Amino acid sequence: MEIYEGVVAFPGIAIGQIRYYVSTKESGYPHAISDVKQELDRYHRAKEKTLEQLKELYSQAVPETKEADTLRRQIQILEGTGFSRAITSMIASEKVNVSHAVVTTRDEMASVFGSLKDEAALNRVQDIREISNWMTYILDGLPKEEEILHEPVIIAAEHISPEEVMKLDKNKILGFLTQEGSPVSHASILVKTMDVPALVHVPADAGWDGRFAIVDGYAGKIYIDPSDGVLQEYKKRRKLEREEKEYLLSLKDEEDVTADGHRVHLYANIGNLEDMSQALDNGARGIGLLRSEFQYLGRESYPGELELFQAYRQAALTMGEGLVIIRTLDIGADKKAEYMGLSDERNPAMGNRGIRVCLQKKEVFKEQLRAIFRASAYGNLAIMYPMVTYVEEIREIQRLVEEVKASLHEKEIPYKDIQQGIVVETPAAAIMAGELARELDFLSIGTNDLTQYTLAMDRQNPQLKERYREQHPSIMKMIEMVVREGHKEGCWVGICGELAANTALTSRFLRMGVDMLSVVPACILPVRRSIRETKIKS
Ligand code: PEP
Ligand code: MG
To answer: Quick one: which atom of ligand 1 is closest to the CA of 498?
Structure first.
C-alpha cells in the first residue's frame, strides 16, 4: 500500500481504479532521436492514417456543410507541402521526435496565422490545430478525451483545463486527483459540480494508471493498492457518507429559513444547462450564478444569438418562478477560447477578462445581452456582470442594454425589465460598493477573485497554498461592508464565491445580513441545514 497526500478541493470518498489522463496539450514533449529515417517514416505513416480517417469522414459528411468544408480544408493542408515540410525539416535538422515537431509546427503556424485576424487565417489556425492534435493521438497512442472513460474511474492528471473537464462524461467519474490547480481554479469548480472527491497538489504520475485506489477527500489522502483492512474501513465510511446524503435529501423541500424565522435565498452555481437537473435534485430554489462562459469554451467559434437564447430560455423555463442569474461572459485568465483572438498576456488574471473583454467586443456582448433579454420573457431571469471596477463601466453597459432593449421593442420581441447586478470581485468594487449599488438592483460577492485580488495571491499558485486564506479577516470585513453599503442603496446582497458553501460561516454571513448564498449543487443541502440551525439574534 502506498499513501500520498494532496490538498482537498472537494470532500468525499472514492474507491476505484485510477485512469491517468494525458492532456493532448502535454503530448509532444521533446526528446532527441538517433534514427532520423525511422522518425520520418513514423511521420509519414501517421500522416497517411490521419488522411485516411479525414477522407472517410469527408465521404460521410453532408456536402456543402460547415463540417464538409472544414474536412476538405484539413485534407488540403495535409496533402499540401507547407505543413509537412515544416515538420519533416524540423525532424531532420533538429533530430527531435515527430510529435514534438508536429506540436511545434502547429504552435508556430498558429502564431503566424493567428496574428492576421481574418476569417480564413483563423480557420487555418483551427484546422492546423485539429489535424496536429489528431496526428499526435495517432502517434502517441493517446485516446481522445471524450473517449477515455468506459467505466467509472478516478481521474489523475498533471493538469486539467476547464474545457477538458467539460468534455469528460460526468457519470463515469469517481474522483479527481491533479498535480496542479487549486480548490478555486475553474477546473476544480467544475469538478465540484460532479459531487465527487477532488484533491489538488497530488504527486500523480503516469505510473498510477490502472491502479486501484482510495481517495479520502476529507483527510486529503490517497491510498494506492490499499491493504484489506484500510479498504474495509473506507467501505464502511463510504456507506456512512451515503447515509448522510440520504438524510440531507430529506431537507430538499424544506424552506431556507433560520430557526428564528429569517428567510434567506439559497441558490445554485452552475456551469451549463446539464447542471440544472443536479441543482433541482438538490433542492435549489434558483440559480445564483450561471457561468455563461462555459457555453463559449471548447468550441471553434462563437455561439450565435439563437443558440444562446435557446439555452437561456430553457434555463428560465426549467426554474419556473425561481430566479436564474446569468453572469455575462467572463472569459480570460484560466478560461480561454482561441477563436476570440485575445492576445497573450504576461499576467492574465490581472488582465483583460470579464466585462473588460465584453466592452471591447461590443458586438459579441450585445449578442449575449439580446439573447438574455429575449429569454427573459419566459421566466424569472436576472443579469450579472463580472469584473466590474468602475461606475463608468456600468453606465457603458447600461447604454448597450438600452440599445438592445430598443431594438427588441422595435421588432416587437417581448422582454422583461430584469434585475441587473454585478459580481463584487475586485477590491475596487468592494470599496465602491455604495456608489456601484446606486446603479444596480443587487450585488453578489465573488469571494474567489476577491480573495486573490485582495491578498495579491494568484488563486491557482500552488506555492502560495499555505498562505492563501479565503477567510482572511480583510475578506470578512469586505463582505460586511459590501452588505451594509449595498443595503443602504436598496440593493440585495449575496455571495456566489466558493466561501458561500462553508457551513462554518453560514451563521456569520446571515448575521451580517447576507440575503443570498449561491453554492455548487452538492453543497445546497448542507448549507440549508446550517441556515435552519442558525439563530440570527443569538
Ligand atoms: C468569484 O470570483 O468568486 C466568482 C464567483 O467567479 P469565478 O469563480 O467564476 O471567477
Ligand atoms: Mg470571479
So the answer is: 3
